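sorry to bug you again but im stuck and you know this stuff better than me. what follows is a protein written twice so to speak, once as letters and once as structure tokens for the fold. mainly i need to know what kind of three dimensional shape the backbone takes. anything you notice is useful, everything is just below:
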Amino acid sequence: MSFNSDALRELLSKSDRELWMTLRIIAAKSGVSLPEAQPSEAEMTRLRSAFSGAANHSYEEAARLLQAYRKGKGTP
């Protein structure tokens, strides 16, 4: 299953705080627990960058990206 590019654009247009809250909710529904504390501005920029090309990726790849962040490795 692929991302809906309109929904992804809307998601990425959110503030860092709103984006992180939304990512935490999405991750939790997939069984991934992300930290409550919002990442630094630099990390949020890296996450946005990684997700900006996600229209060509699957949900599984996005889950892998979030899983890597959760483990403290930052974005791949």
In short: Residues 16-29 form the longest helix (14 residues). The two ends are 21 Å apart (CA to CA).
